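ok trying this again, last paste got cut off
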Amino acid sequence: MCNSSGNCVRCLTDANCNAGYTPNAVCLPDGQCGCNADAQCAGQSAGTRCVQSIQNCGCQSDADCSAAGALTCAANHRCGCSSNQDCVGKIGLSESPSPVCDPSSGACVVCLSDADCTDPNGPVCGPSQFCYACRTSTDCAQNSNGPVCGDLGADEPGIGWCVCNTDTDCAGRAGGPYCVSNGSTIKKCGCATNADCAGDAQGHACVTIPQSGGWLQCACTTAADCPSGKACPYAGATCQ
């Protein structure tokens, strides 16, 4: 919305706040949607109290939290999880499974520490609480893309991608035996033909993996491309 001072704001009237926000939200003097009375927060999962410090529905104590799996008042005055058990089956940002409870925010997240990142291709917990490839090349020891941690800061400060420089870097890597490019300056371990992927743990087909940015790597198109006991989630995925 454009206010009388020519500034873009969230709302001009209470009616601007009631769609896709909270049923009883009001338009505050600064042009943001929020609350100014506890009655406006009845039944809200974030909390049933109008917290003046954040001018939004939240909580002052656990008694203000009533939604299943979000019964604890976190330090940020939002109702949320109290243990990892509350996060079982939760899906967070980017459709990522978020099985770890962050007690400071009450949010279910992907990780709090590197110990929560069990995928060898993503063993590092970044500042945004997602699992990433590497901080140093030591983190790339088991990564299918290569043994070198490069392009630091591309995703988050101090976080990089595991890459390769030569075919020698790819010996024994699950991505494939060759150091290949997708047309960019970044190279990853990959393949040229299906024969390069025979017996590969990621899959026995040499395909373009959409999530990897277009590099030809060992993956699967059907379950028949996977080792015994593993499944192919979809064509172009790695066996799980």
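PB: full thing came through this time. The radius of gyration is 24 Å.
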